[in-house]
């Protein structure tokens, strides 16, 4: 089951949309009405994380000798 984000469709310009999540099968059609209230809704396309492209990866830059990549702020990267 996937989790999808939906929002209500405002009926006036002053009305803000209300966002919520619903678990559905990927084979299910998008909902058009809120399952509890019957208010008109739409599915929201949200961003994800993905790596695209075929650019040649550059080698990581090394910090100066005796330093860390975060400037010694203790973030844990060495």
Tally of individual helices? 0
- The poorly predicted ranges are 67-71, 73-78
Query: Gap between N and C termini, in Å?
Result: 39 Å
What's the β-strand tally? 3
User: What is the chain-wise order of helices and strands?
Assistant: EEE
With strands numbered from the N-terminus, the spatial order across the biggest sheet is: 2-1-3
Percent in strands = 15-25%
From the spread of the alpha carbons, the general shape counts as flat
Largest sheet, strands/sense/barrel: 3 strands, antiparallel
Radius of gyration: 22 Å
Tell me, rounded to a whole number, the average pLDDT: 78
Structural class: mainly beta
The percentage helix is: under 10%
Would you kindly provide a written description of the structure presented here, covering whatever features stand out?
The protein has 78 residues and is mostly beta strands. It has a domain at 2-44. It contains no helices and three strands. The chain has strands at 2-8, 19-24, 41-44. Strands 2-1-3 form a three-stranded antiparallel beta sheet, with no helix packed on it. It starts with a strand and ends in a 34-residue tail after the last strand.
Structure summary:
The chain has strands spanning 2-8, 19-24, 41-44. The protein is an all-beta fold and 78 residues long.
Quickly list its features.
single chain, 78 residues, mainly beta, three-stranded antiparallel beta sheet, disordered C terminus
Present the secondary structure layout:
Blueprint: E1 2-8, E2 19-24, E3 41-44
Antiparallel strand pairs: 1-2, 1-3
